[in-house]
Prior knowledge:
Elements: E1 4-9, H1 11-18, E2 25-29, H2 45-58, H3 65-80, E3 87-93, H4 96-111, E4 118-122, H5 139-143, E5 150-151, H6 154-169, H7 172-180, H8 189-197, H9 209-219, H10 225-235, H11 244-256, E6 262-265, E7 284-287
Helix pairs in contact: 2-3, 4-6, 4-8, 7-8, 9-10, 9-11
Amino acid sequence: MGGTLHITSGDCAGSILAKTGIAGDVFVWHDILYNGPRKSGWPDDDTLYARARFLEQETAGGLDRQSILSTLKNQYQKLAAATGYDRIVLWFDACLFDQSMLAHILACMLLQGIYKADLLCVSAFPGIVPFNGLGQLQPSQMASLYDLRRPVTDAQFRFAEDVDKAFASQDPILLTDLSRRADVPLPWIPAAVTRWRQELPDPSTGLGRLESLALEAIRGGCATPTEIFSTVADADTPPQFWGDITLWAKINALADRKPPLVRIEGPAPRLPQWENVADLKRYRITSLPNNANVADA
């Protein structure tokens, strides 16, 4: 086969990478590796079916189970075939979404006997503040990063196995340890794990950080999805691991609580969590009086 295989996360980053003029095939990985049922390392069929069910639920049926399952199977087949390339280059951001994915891919590469790859992990870019990821770059800007790639070390491969195990098991002890470690082989992992731990339900409110930020924005007067998104993005700490689909799911969850914390009015009873088949401008979200303990879901 020969040539170069570029692996990245997100269709936006993949599209930009394909326009850089850098030689090679672009492979975009799809999954939410920091959450949901799975085992660490290479998945078996049962794990893939469980992932497909989970992702279908996460998108409120916007992506159907069979299409998800097909995507998951194809991407592991593609990774298994990556031994045929002369070079593998991994392009990832410093956020929770990308770091959990990077750890999983490195762990899977080891299991496939792939011990050589180059890594580009980007946490900042001159003139772009706040910087949330590669998807913000122009093709020429992304191309300028290529010479910064570095070989993945044995220590990074082995550490990735530990990180993948922690995210797969959701073991609080492992996650807490990772969030507190310093001088680790993948230096962006502690901050990413810390951000994930903030998504765990707060004992007093029952809400994770993203839900709390969304509720604060709505109670502060933001009424449209776009207003809420902008306010929450400004309030959260970059790099931002979530996108509109994730935020709409959190707002829908606030409306589905018992008692509900917000009311959604618009073309549908809930915000669309995949394709925006309805005009988001036609939705209005308002807060509801909280007469009960917020933690009562």
